[in-house]
Amino acid sequence: MTHLITVNHDGTATLAVDFSDEGVALQGNTHVKGGEAEALAYLPVFERDLRRNYAHLFPTPVTDPDEPTEEEMDE
Prior knowledge:
Number of helices: 2
Order of helices and strands: EEEHH
Helix content: 25-40%
Oligomer: single chain
Strand content: 25-35%
Number of domains: 1
Radius of gyration: 17 Å
């Protein structure tokens, strides 16, 4: 995922994300009150929401049945 933050003159910032680098045709934009720092703080929430709301666009991870799971590795 790539992102671009544009600070606007009205005290908001535009946050744009693009998932094409992951092979997913999904882009999203939102406005955040504040500047770059506030937009960066909101970025993980926005990304998570887009991934959840458009989960059908993202490929499911392929697991190797011979590879141990994280729980097995912690034992």
